[in-house]
Amino acid sequence: MTSTNTNHDLESPSATAGAQAAPVVDAPAAADPRRWIAFIIMTVATFMDMLDGSIVNVALPAIQHGMGASFVQLQWITAGYVFAFALTLITGGRLGDIYGRRRMFQLGVLAFVVTSFLCGIATNPEMLVASRLAQGLAAGLMVPQVMSIIHVTFPDKEKGAVFAIQGTIGGLAATIAPLVGGLLVAWNVFDWSWRTIFLVNVPIGILGYVLGWKYINESKAPSRIRLDLIGVVIATVSLTALLFPLTFGRELHWPAWGFVLMAASVIGFIGFVAYEKAKDRKDGMPLVPLNLFKSRSFSAALALMLGMFSFTGMFMLALYLYLQEGLGFSPLRTGVTLLAFCIGAFITASASVIALVPKFGRAVLQAGAVVIAIGVAVLLFSISPDITSWGLVPGLLLIGLGFGMTATPIALFALQEVPHEDAGAASGLINTKQQLGFAVGISVVTLAFFAPLASNGATNAESLAPQFRQEIVAAGVADARATELAGAFQTCAASTFSGTPDAAACGAVQADPQAKAIADKYTHQAAGQSFTDAFRTTLYVGFGFAALALLLASFLPRWLKQEEWGAPAEEGAEEGAEDTAKA
């Protein structure tokens, strides 16, 4: 199925409607019920990707114990997937425009199945790392096709419901990943232990692959486009220079060359834009159609997406660490607790794009940012070292409600002026912004969580050392030995909170049977207070992200321009004319 939309410039709503009314295969076929079956298939694929992005975190202890993986290898197993995924998105989206979106989606699904199987049968950490990188590349080919197929297949009046469902499913996958991972590892099906979290993708992916050929219609750009190989190289190198230090910088203790790489990436992106402009003038076949950024709606939506997902990456990582490491929650209990966030996002994700945004426009997204800030404030007043799951529910529910109101409708604003021929490239950019946001958020955790954790951990360890000494003396340990063990306890606890445990000090405490049990008690006490204080600092930074989201949302057009969305006719038309003139 091929589009006949040949306008390379951004179209006005009337022009777009005229193009879609023409007898072409790429126009939305309102009477074709297969598009919903196709959407279900693609949603399952998206769910697998979102689940795989974080489910492995729960299985890391089992992987380390079963395969003897080092901490560096564990980092590559988790972050390597996201890194490879982010690198492929822009190119993957454009490949769909060129060779067919269904074809690239199906190829991505097949590759995802194969690489999931390889992860499941990995015989050593090196094989698992390589398979996870390949799995990320497969996801980068598969995922951007979903948004572009939706854009060219569904009429505007249905896109609200489609994006609401897709956003909810994505949020659900990310939220319940610890729950699902914990259950799969705990059940230990066929004695496969952690391997189940990868092998479960195989039958699901095969079923989706078979059904995809039957129910997903093909679409691609109307005119013949060649892949911009030089653009691919420049974009990939520049993204690598930016994402590698953001993703792995904390584990590598932020070396100087990491900051040099990030600075070089700026030069690389400037060169990429200059090259793409020249490429567009030469043959009209750039990797990224820069005319997309002439749209106020697209540019503002990308900026807002970067800010929102930076907050999400920071908040979720800090929350996982606080619940599991600080409060001692099991993966299963963590997943159940986070359902409050998921339920909130589910409620507003559907309501915002179907009912609220058509009536109130960008004000819904701005209100969502305010609700997030209120939720953060509720958590600030609630958290403590002994808080229960129920105590976290009000704050998490509010943040979820705000997230659904703000994050889910962004795609509607981003895609409303994108020509069908550039749907893949636009989808690749949108997904890349999401992953870049996650990477930025994770890097912010270094300053907003780990830095205060190290500082507070050292302080709490120092304050608890005298109590530790007093208790082991009461247990019959000699004064000199007690003083030595108290010093080892303080050094071990402080170094552990800083991320580099002192093996000698920790070994000395663990080797003494009397000291070990007492040390575990006080370490748990120090962890509860230290992680609570660190998470509180992260929440203060969350206020800043909420304010940023409120500001960025104000740059969006006030209304969605399509008449089907019910924007007030006079005001919507007036702003639409103004935006078209600016473009």
TrEMBL record:
Keyword Transmembrane helix on entry: yes
Keywords: Cell membrane, Membrane, Transmembrane, Transmembrane helix, Transport
Subcellular location: Cell membrane
Protein name as catalogued: Major facilitator superfamily (MFS) profile domain-containing protein
Residues in Major facilitator superfamily (MFS) profile domain copies: 38-561
SUPFAM superfamilies: MFS general substrate transporter
Family annotation (NCBIfam families): efflux_EmrB (TIGR00711)
A Pfam family it matches: MFS_1
InterPro entries linked: EmrB-like, MFS, MFS_dom, MFS_trans_sf
Membrane topology note: Multi-pass membrane protein
Key word Transport present: yes
